[in-house]
Automatic annotation (TrEMBL):
UniProt keyword RNA-binding, yes or no: yes
Transmembrane segments: none
GO MF annotations, alphabetized: RNA 7-methylguanosine cap binding; translation initiation factor activity
Annotated GO CC locations: eukaryotic translation initiation factor 4F complex
GO biological process: regulation of translation
InterPro entries documented for this protein: TIF_eIF4e-like (IPR023398), TIF_eIF_4E (IPR001040)
Record's keyword terms, sorted: Initiation factor, Protein biosynthesis, RNA-binding, Translation regulation
Compositional bias segments (type: Polar residues): 228-237
Record organism: Umbelopsis ramanniana AG
SUPFAM superfamilies listed in its UniProt record: eIF4e-like
Similarity comment: family membership: Belongs to the eukaryotic initiation factor 4E family.
Protein name (Swiss-Prot/TrEMBL): Eukaryotic translation initiation factor 4E
Length: 237
């Protein structure tokens, strides 16, 4: 059974924001995927260049997570609030997921969507994140409105389409819904290679088309030890 089918019933108090059609879409896709494939690998454009019903593989597999703690998150409860929704590895399956989940603009306050490379949990403690940090930008809700849906989509496409330089550095992206702002964050594996980080940050700013807004980089070690209000970014782009 896929994570999509199980996610909504994991915890009835925190329903995963998945449209009912998603499960059937992904199931339909899975049965096409396995057709003619002995080892359960998807049939992709690399196997059959002449047909249009094959899928386009992504360089990495990605997992979508959701959490809505309903109250202020804390270090102890963080992990148990995370709900794994679905993993995909083709562009077609990405769209099947994206087109069927609740839009960011309609999520409850304190919710987060996290898209991370498969195998990486969206938390500081994961080995892929423990030495890393995040770029983040806060977008005031009153000025951003529904545009947040497109900004999150552009962030996702930049990640899965490897549009960011040194894409191996990127572990995932997060969108957070807070009382007066949305926040988009991009998580990196390391926090000390300024040249590499500068390149990633500049490209993210360009992708989001936010030349006049500060994009702040914060090592997770700062966030983990100081708490959100005291955290100061190491640098700003
Ligand atoms: P947050 O949601 O990233 O910050 O983390 P925000 O939005 O500034 O704060 P909010 O209270 O308005 O939501 C909020 C809190 O969640 C942190 O202070 C930690 O207590 C906890 N937390 C966040 N993250 C990303 C982690 C994590 O990776 N691991 C653990 N253990 N706790 C975390």
């Amino acid at each position: 059974m896929s994570a999509v089918e199980t996610a909504p019933s994991v915890d009835p108090t925190t329903p995963a924001p998945v449209d009912a059609t998603l499960a059937s879409d992904v199931n339909a896709t899975q049965s096409t995927e396995t057709k003619g494939s002995e080892d359960d690998q998807p049939v992709t454009i690399f196997h059959d260049r002449m047909n249009y019903n094959v899928k386009h593989p992504l360089h990495n597999e990605w997992t979508l997570w959701f959490d809505n703690p309903g109250k202020k998150a804390n270090v102890q409860s963080w992990s148990q609030n995370l709900k794994e929704i679905v993993t995909f590895k083709t562009i077609e399956d990405f769209w099947a997921v994206f087109n069927n989940i609740v839009k960011v603009s309609r999520l409850d306050i304190s919710s987060n969507y996290h898209l991370f490379k498969k195998g990486v949990r969206p938390e500081w403690e994961d080995p892929a994140n423990e030495h890393g940090g995040k770029f983040s930008v806060q977008l005031p809700k009153n000025r951003t409105g529904e545009a947040i849906n497109d900004l999150w989509l552009y962030t996702l496409l930049a990640c899965i389409g490897e549009q960011l330089p040194n894409e191996d550095e990127v572990t995932g992206a997060v969108v957070s819904v807070r009382k007066v702002f949305f926040r988009i964050s991009l998580w990196t594996k390391t926090s000390d290679n300024r040249e590499v980080l500068d390149g990633i940050g500049k490209k993210l700013k360009e992708t989001l088309n936010i030349p006049n807004m500060p994009l702040e980089f914060t090592p997770h070690s700062d966030a983990a030890t100081k708490g959100p209000s005291e955290t100061t970014g190491r640098f700003t782009i």
